[in-house]
Amino acid sequence: MFDLVLAGGEVLDGTGCAPVRADVGVRDGRVTAVDRLDGAAAAARIDATGCYVAPGFVDAHVHADAAVLDPAVQLALLRQGITTVVLGQDGLSYAPGSPSTVEFVSRYFGAVNGAHPGFPGGTVADLLTTYDRATAVNTAYLVPHGTVRYEVLGPAPRRLELGRTNPDAFYERWYDLAALGREVLEPLRTNGSGRILPTLWNPVTDRSTRAAYLTVPPGGIVLLSGPLLLGAGLELDFTVHCGQSTAARDRRTPDADRWTLPAYLRYAEEVHPEYLADVVLRMDDPRHPALVESAVG
Q1: Spatial distance between the Cα atoms of 39 and 219, rounded to a whole number of angstroms
Q2: Structural domains for the chain
Q3: What tens digit of pLDDT does each residue of 55-102 get?
Protein backbone atom coordinates (compact mmCIF):
# COMPACT_ATOMS: atom_id res chain seq x y z
CA MET A 1 0.00 0.00 0.00
CA PHE A 2 1.19 3.46 -0.90
CA ASP A 3 0.92 6.49 1.29
CA LEU A 4 0.30 8.64 -1.80
CA VAL A 5 -0.25 8.12 -5.51
CA LEU A 6 0.08 10.96 -8.03
CA ALA A 7 -2.02 9.65 -10.89
CA GLY A 8 -1.98 10.46 -14.60
CA GLY A 9 0.67 13.18 -14.66
CA GLU A 10 3.41 13.85 -17.20
CA VAL A 11 6.51 12.59 -15.37
CA LEU A 12 9.84 14.37 -15.87
CA ASP A 13 12.58 12.15 -14.47
CA GLY A 14 15.43 14.69 -14.63
CA THR A 15 17.43 12.83 -17.29
CA GLY A 16 16.44 15.13 -20.13
CA CYS A 17 14.13 12.60 -21.74
CA ALA A 18 10.65 13.53 -22.91
CA PRO A 19 7.94 13.37 -20.24
CA VAL A 20 6.06 10.10 -19.83
CA ARG A 21 2.48 9.76 -18.65
CA ALA A 22 2.63 7.60 -15.53
CA ASP A 23 1.60 7.29 -11.91
CA VAL A 24 4.03 7.94 -9.05
CA GLY A 25 3.74 5.96 -5.83
CA VAL A 26 5.18 7.29 -2.57
CA ARG A 27 5.79 5.23 0.57
CA ASP A 28 7.50 6.43 3.78
CA GLY A 29 8.45 9.71 2.16
CA ARG A 30 10.16 8.12 -0.85
CA VAL A 31 9.17 7.47 -4.45
CA THR A 32 8.94 3.69 -4.70
CA ALA A 33 7.15 3.22 -8.03
CA VAL A 34 6.74 5.02 -11.36
CA ASP A 35 4.27 2.96 -13.41
CA ARG A 36 0.59 2.41 -14.10
CA LEU A 37 -0.87 2.10 -10.59
CA ASP A 38 -4.60 2.11 -11.37
CA GLY A 39 -5.47 -0.66 -8.95
CA ALA A 40 -2.91 0.05 -6.28
CA ALA A 41 -4.14 0.78 -2.78
CA ALA A 42 -3.16 4.20 -1.44
CA ALA A 43 -3.98 6.24 1.62
CA ALA A 44 -4.31 9.29 -0.64
CA ARG A 45 -4.58 9.76 -4.38
CA ILE A 46 -4.09 13.01 -6.31
CA ASP A 47 -5.27 13.36 -9.91
CA ALA A 48 -2.29 14.94 -11.70
CA THR A 49 -3.85 14.80 -15.17
CA GLY A 50 -2.64 17.76 -17.25
CA CYS A 51 0.19 18.50 -14.81
CA TYR A 52 3.90 17.82 -14.84
CA VAL A 53 5.34 15.69 -12.05
CA ALA A 54 9.03 16.35 -11.48
CA PRO A 55 11.75 15.76 -8.88
CA GLY A 56 12.13 18.61 -6.43
CA PHE A 57 14.15 21.50 -7.79
CA VAL A 58 17.48 22.54 -6.26
CA ASP A 59 18.03 26.28 -5.83
CA ALA A 60 21.80 26.52 -6.04
CA HIS A 61 22.07 30.25 -5.34
CA VAL A 62 19.44 31.51 -2.95
CA HIS A 63 21.09 33.27 0.06
CA ALA A 64 18.49 31.76 2.38
CA ASP A 65 20.99 30.95 5.13
CA ALA A 66 18.71 32.55 7.72
CA ALA A 67 15.51 33.03 5.72
CA VAL A 68 15.05 29.29 5.16
CA LEU A 69 14.04 29.05 8.83
CA ASP A 70 11.03 31.29 8.12
CA PRO A 71 7.90 29.17 7.44
CA ALA A 72 6.63 31.74 4.93
CA VAL A 73 9.85 31.44 2.92
CA GLN A 74 9.67 27.65 3.07
CA LEU A 75 6.14 27.75 1.68
CA ALA A 76 7.18 30.11 -1.12
CA LEU A 77 10.01 27.77 -2.09
CA LEU A 78 7.80 24.68 -2.07
CA ARG A 79 5.14 26.39 -4.17
CA GLN A 80 7.83 26.88 -6.82
CA GLY A 81 8.79 23.21 -6.65
CA ILE A 82 12.04 23.89 -4.76
CA THR A 83 12.79 21.21 -2.21
CA THR A 84 16.53 21.80 -1.66
CA VAL A 85 18.51 25.01 -1.20
CA VAL A 86 22.29 25.40 -1.29
CA LEU A 87 23.60 27.75 1.40
CA GLY A 88 27.00 29.37 1.99
CA GLN A 89 27.09 31.13 -1.37
CA ASP A 90 29.54 33.89 -2.38
CA GLY A 91 32.06 33.01 0.29
CA LEU A 92 30.23 34.30 3.37
CA SER A 93 27.98 32.57 5.86
CA TYR A 94 27.90 31.80 9.57
CA ALA A 95 30.24 28.81 9.96
CA PRO A 96 32.86 27.88 10.77
CA GLY A 97 33.44 30.81 13.06
CA SER A 98 33.74 32.29 16.51
CA PRO A 99 31.05 34.67 17.81
CA SER A 100 33.06 37.65 16.56
CA THR A 101 33.30 36.12 13.08
CA VAL A 102 29.55 35.42 13.03
CA GLU A 103 28.90 39.02 14.05
CA PHE A 104 31.18 40.30 11.29
CA VAL A 105 29.67 38.24 8.47
CA SER A 106 26.12 38.95 9.71
CA ARG A 107 26.84 42.66 9.56
CA TYR A 108 28.87 42.61 6.34
CA PHE A 109 26.35 40.46 4.44
CA GLY A 110 23.32 41.47 6.48
CA ALA A 111 21.33 42.87 3.57
CA VAL A 112 21.65 39.54 1.74
CA ASN A 113 21.75 36.76 4.33
CA GLY A 114 20.36 38.52 7.38
CA ALA A 115 21.17 37.37 10.90
CA HIS A 116 20.74 33.76 11.96
CA PRO A 117 18.19 33.68 14.81
CA GLY A 118 19.90 31.01 16.89
CA PHE A 119 23.53 30.41 15.94
CA PRO A 120 26.13 32.11 18.17
CA GLY A 121 29.12 30.54 16.44
CA GLY A 122 30.70 27.13 16.05
CA THR A 123 31.47 24.47 13.47
CA VAL A 124 29.70 23.71 10.21
CA ALA A 125 28.14 20.69 11.92
CA ASP A 126 26.83 22.97 14.67
CA LEU A 127 25.24 25.24 12.08
CA LEU A 128 23.65 22.37 10.17
CA THR A 129 21.94 21.14 13.32
CA THR A 130 20.01 24.42 13.43
CA TYR A 131 18.27 23.37 10.19
CA ASP A 132 17.44 19.83 11.33
CA ARG A 133 13.65 19.45 11.70
CA ALA A 134 13.39 23.23 11.53
CA THR A 135 12.65 23.64 7.83
CA ALA A 136 10.41 21.88 5.32
CA VAL A 137 13.08 22.00 2.60
CA ASN A 138 16.42 20.22 2.44
CA THR A 139 19.62 22.20 2.95
CA ALA A 140 23.10 21.76 1.52
CA TYR A 141 26.06 23.92 2.52
CA LEU A 142 29.17 25.24 0.82
CA VAL A 143 31.91 26.02 3.35
CA PRO A 144 32.43 29.77 2.68
CA HIS A 145 36.04 30.77 2.04
CA GLY A 146 35.50 34.36 3.22
CA THR A 147 34.25 33.21 6.61
CA VAL A 148 37.17 30.82 6.99
CA ARG A 149 39.62 33.55 5.99
CA TYR A 150 38.21 36.03 8.49
CA GLU A 151 38.23 33.40 11.24
CA VAL A 152 41.93 32.78 10.61
CA LEU A 153 43.14 36.31 9.81
CA GLY A 154 40.63 38.50 11.60
CA PRO A 155 40.76 42.14 10.47
CA ALA A 156 44.44 41.89 9.46
CA PRO A 157 43.90 42.26 5.67
CA ARG A 158 42.44 45.77 6.00
CA ARG A 159 44.99 46.70 8.63
CA LEU A 160 47.86 45.62 6.39
CA GLU A 161 46.61 47.11 3.11
CA LEU A 162 49.29 49.79 3.37
CA GLY A 163 52.00 47.33 4.42
CA ARG A 164 53.27 45.89 7.67
CA THR A 165 55.41 48.90 8.57
CA ASN A 166 53.21 51.82 7.61
CA PRO A 167 52.88 54.37 10.47
CA ASP A 168 49.51 55.67 9.21
CA ALA A 169 48.11 52.13 9.27
CA PHE A 170 49.50 51.68 12.79
CA TYR A 171 47.82 54.89 13.89
CA GLU A 172 44.47 54.49 12.14
CA ARG A 173 43.83 50.76 11.65
CA TRP A 174 45.91 48.67 14.03
CA TYR A 175 43.18 47.86 16.53
CA ASP A 176 39.91 46.09 15.86
CA LEU A 177 37.99 48.55 18.02
CA ALA A 178 34.64 47.00 17.10
CA ALA A 179 35.76 43.60 18.42
CA LEU A 180 37.28 45.23 21.50
CA GLY A 181 33.97 46.86 22.30
CA ARG A 182 31.88 43.81 21.48
CA GLU A 183 34.01 41.16 23.18
CA VAL A 184 35.37 43.10 26.16
CA LEU A 185 33.75 46.44 26.96
CA GLU A 186 30.07 45.85 26.21
CA PRO A 187 29.82 42.69 28.37
CA LEU A 188 31.21 44.70 31.30
CA ARG A 189 28.51 47.35 31.18
CA THR A 190 25.58 47.41 33.57
CA ASN A 191 23.35 44.41 32.79
CA GLY A 192 26.09 42.99 30.56
CA SER A 193 26.91 39.28 30.56
CA GLY A 194 30.34 39.71 32.17
CA ARG A 195 31.76 37.15 29.69
CA ILE A 196 34.79 38.56 27.91
CA LEU A 197 37.62 37.43 25.71
CA PRO A 198 40.87 37.99 27.64
CA THR A 199 42.86 38.32 24.41
CA LEU A 200 41.90 38.99 20.80
CA TRP A 201 45.13 38.98 18.82
CA ASN A 202 48.57 37.38 19.00
CA PRO A 203 51.14 40.00 17.87
CA VAL A 204 53.75 37.32 17.17
CA THR A 205 51.66 35.20 14.82
CA ASP A 206 49.41 38.11 13.74
CA ARG A 207 46.42 35.83 14.18
CA SER A 208 43.37 35.61 16.38
CA THR A 209 44.20 33.98 19.70
CA ARG A 210 40.89 32.07 19.77
CA ALA A 211 40.96 32.42 23.52
CA ALA A 212 38.25 30.91 25.69
CA TYR A 213 35.71 33.25 27.27
CA LEU A 214 36.03 34.02 30.95
CA THR A 215 33.53 35.57 33.32
CA VAL A 216 34.57 38.63 35.32
CA PRO A 217 33.20 38.39 38.88
CA PRO A 218 31.07 41.23 40.30
CA GLY A 219 33.33 44.12 41.22
CA GLY A 220 36.17 42.72 39.11
CA ILE A 221 38.60 45.03 37.33
CA VAL A 222 39.78 44.55 33.76
CA LEU A 223 43.07 46.19 32.79
CA LEU A 224 43.20 47.26 29.14
CA SER A 225 46.73 48.08 28.05
CA GLY A 226 47.87 49.39 24.68
CA PRO A 227 49.21 52.43 22.82
CA LEU A 228 47.13 55.03 20.99
CA LEU A 229 43.84 54.07 22.67
CA LEU A 230 42.83 57.39 24.21
CA GLY A 231 40.62 59.40 21.88
CA ALA A 232 39.28 56.26 20.17
CA GLY A 233 35.82 56.66 21.69
CA LEU A 234 36.12 53.72 24.08
CA GLU A 235 33.97 53.91 27.20
CA LEU A 236 36.49 53.42 30.01
CA ASP A 237 36.00 54.02 33.73
CA PHE A 238 39.55 55.17 34.45
CA THR A 239 42.46 55.99 32.16
CA VAL A 240 46.20 56.47 32.59
CA HIS A 241 48.44 58.02 29.93
CA CYS A 242 52.07 56.89 30.12
CA GLY A 243 53.89 59.53 28.10
CA GLN A 244 57.46 59.95 26.96
CA SER A 245 59.32 62.90 25.55
CA THR A 246 60.14 62.69 21.86
CA ALA A 247 63.83 62.27 22.67
CA ALA A 248 63.22 59.47 25.17
CA ARG A 249 60.90 57.61 22.83
CA ASP A 250 63.39 57.94 20.00
CA ARG A 251 66.17 56.67 22.23
CA ARG A 252 64.27 53.73 23.72
CA THR A 253 62.38 52.43 20.68
CA PRO A 254 63.99 49.26 19.27
CA ASP A 255 65.18 49.44 15.68
CA ALA A 256 62.53 46.94 14.59
CA ASP A 257 59.77 49.28 15.85
CA ARG A 258 61.13 52.65 14.76
CA TRP A 259 58.68 52.75 11.88
CA THR A 260 55.94 53.43 14.47
CA LEU A 261 57.49 56.71 15.70
CA PRO A 262 55.59 58.99 13.25
CA ALA A 263 52.33 57.46 14.53
CA TYR A 264 53.15 58.49 18.10
CA LEU A 265 53.88 62.03 16.91
CA ARG A 266 50.47 62.17 15.19
CA TYR A 267 48.84 60.82 18.33
CA ALA A 268 50.44 63.52 20.47
CA GLU A 269 49.56 66.32 18.04
CA GLU A 270 46.03 65.24 17.10
CA VAL A 271 44.65 63.55 20.22
CA HIS A 272 46.51 65.29 23.07
CA PRO A 273 46.11 62.24 25.34
CA GLU A 274 47.46 64.12 28.35
CA TYR A 275 44.21 66.14 28.38
CA LEU A 276 41.99 63.05 28.18
CA ALA A 277 43.55 60.79 30.80
CA ASP A 278 42.58 60.70 34.47
CA VAL A 279 46.25 60.28 35.40
CA VAL A 280 49.35 61.25 33.40
CA LEU A 281 52.72 59.60 34.07
CA ARG A 282 56.06 60.58 32.55
CA MET A 283 57.85 57.38 31.54
CA ASP A 284 61.13 58.68 30.09
CA ASP A 285 62.78 56.20 32.45
CA PRO A 286 60.32 53.33 33.01
CA ARG A 287 62.20 52.41 36.19
CA HIS A 288 61.23 55.76 37.70
CA PRO A 289 57.77 56.84 36.50
CA ALA A 290 56.83 60.36 37.53
CA LEU A 291 53.31 61.61 38.25
CA VAL A 292 52.71 64.63 36.05
CA GLU A 293 49.04 65.25 36.58
CA SER A 294 46.08 63.60 38.27
CA ALA A 295 42.43 64.43 37.80
CA VAL A 296 41.52 62.19 40.71
CA GLY A 297 40.29 64.14 43.71
Answers
A1: 78
A2: 4-55 (2.30.40.10), 59-151 (no CATH), 154-294 (no CATH)
A3: 999 999 999 999 999 999 999 999 999 999 999 999 999 999 888 788
Q: Confidence class of residue 296 from pLDDT cuts 50, 70 and 90?
A: low
Using alpha carbons, select from 238, 249, 224, 244 the residue that is nearest to residue 276.
Answer: 238
3-class SS string, the chain: CECEEEEEEEECCCCCCCCEEEEEEEECCEEEEEECCCCCCECCEEECCCCEECCCEEECCCCCCCHHHCHHHHHHHHHCCEEEEEECHHHCCCCCECHHHHHHHHHHCHHHHCCCCCCCCECHHHHHHCCCCCCCCEEEECCCHHHHHHHHHCCHHHHCCCCCCCHHHHHHCCCCHHHHHHHHHHHHCCCCCCEECCCCEECCCCEECCCCCEECCCCCCCCCCCCCCCCCCCCCCCCEEEECCHHHHHHHCCHHHHHHHHHHHHHHHHCCHHHHCCEEEECCCCCCCEEEEECCC
- Answer yes or no: pTM beyond 0.70: no
Does the pLDDT at position 160 exceed 80?
A: no
The backbone torsions φ and ψ at residue 58, rounded to the nearest 5 degrees and listed phi first, read -110, 120
Of 13 and 206, which is predicted with more confidence?
13
